[in-house]
Write a structure and sequence with these properties.
Blueprint: H1 10-15, H2 29-34, H3 38-61, E1 64-68, H4 71-79, E2 86-90, H5 97-100, H6 112-115, E3 123-127, H7 128-131, H8 135-143, E4 146-149, H9 158-168, E5 172-175, H10 193-200, E6 206-213, H11 215-218, E7 232-237, H12 244-252, H13 257-289
Parallel strand pairs: 1-7, 2-5, 2-6, 3-4, 3-5
Antiparallel strand pairs: 6-7
Membrane topology: Peripheral membrane protein
InterPro entries: Plipid/glycerol_acylTrfase, Tafazzin
Family: Belongs to the taffazin family.
Length: about 290
């Protein structure tokens, strides 16, 4: 399962196979995220706290979010067994999806020990060419528990490695399996990175699917880029995806890593498409009733 190409640094990985070059060196970020210092903990507490409360103001108080089944995620954040990894997956329609959706977590959960605790709030991959373009942007997003991912560099890159490491520690990791902001809302094939993350995490994560509608109206994908108010949003948190039988079958059968990643990713996409249809009905009813 762990036979893989030799580890490459960010620049080399991006350059291999005519991949997009990295204009700003992001290699220094990974050691800091892998072994955070005391300064990192302090700075991360501030960034996560401020961004979390800002997201709640924008999404919950200045817009009109209808939320379904968020208790699924809240219960796992508060009560899942120690050391059990949590993986959330969602569609990606706006650059404000993350952190915006985490503003939905209710105040009973957003105690200081939670919202400011780097061991509770998610780790999330963020595009290197948008969020990590210079030192100051990199520091901000690094303290916000964002991991720089090089889009187009494949499943064997430092960002995916680090997500697996964080899940091994029992942390919460969030993934956008579409691999980019889906501005056209087409049914994109999910990237196999999510399959590798699940396949190579020793303890099967609890996988919670999330589908949301309307975030691109809060922060549009075309200029002018500023946050809008009073928009109607629908969020739907699905039941955890059960991959136990799939994983048992993969462990028992002699399939390649590539085939295993595909099978896992396809299962995640299948479950997400069911959640999408349900959420679209809920959103239609929300718009119709108002």
């Amino acid at each position: 399962m762990n036979s893989k190409p030799p580890s490459m640094n960010g620049v080399a990985a991006a350059a291999a196979g005519a991949q997009p070059l990295i204009q700003y060196n992001i290699d220094w970020i990974f050691p800091k995220l892998r072994k955070p210092s005391r300064l990192w903990h302090i700075a991360s507490t501030g960034v996560i706290g401020l961004v979390g409360f800002f997201s709640k103001i924008v999404i919950v108080w200045l817009n009109k979010a209808r939320v379904h089944n968020i208790e699924v995620l809240e219960n796992l954040l508060e009560n899942r067994p120690k050391g059990t990894p949590l993986l959330t997956v969602s569609n990606h329609h706006s650059c404000f999806d993350d952190p915006g959706m985490w503003g939905l977590l209710r105040l009973r959960l957003l105690k200081l020990r939670n919202v400011c605790n780097h061991n509770v709030i998610r780790w999330s991959m963020a595009a290197h060419d948008i969020c990590f373009t210079n030192k100051y942007h990199s520091l901000f997003f690094m303290y916000g528990k964002c991991i720089p991912v090089v889009r187009g560099a494949g499943v064997y890159q430092p960002a995916i490695d680090l997500c697996i490491e964080k899940l091994k520690l029992g942390h919460w990791v969030h993934v956008f399996p579409e691999g980019k902001v889906n501005m056209t809302k087409e049914d994109l094939r999910f990237k196999w990175g999510v399959g590798r993350i699940i396949y190579e995490t020793p303890v099967l994560p609890i996988i919670v699917p999330i589908w949301h509608i309307g975030m691109e109206t809060v922060l549009p994908n075309e200029p002018p880029y500023y946050l809008r108010l009073g928009k109607k949003l629908t969020y739907n948190f699905g039941k955890p995806i059960d991959l136990n039988s799939v994983m048992e079958r993969l462990r028992a059968s002699p399939v390649s890593e590539e085939e295993a990643r595909k099978i896992i990713t396809d299962k995640i996409q299948e479950e997400m498409m069911v959640l999408k249809e349900e959420t679209e009905r809920l959103h239609f009813d929300y718009i119709k009733s108002s």
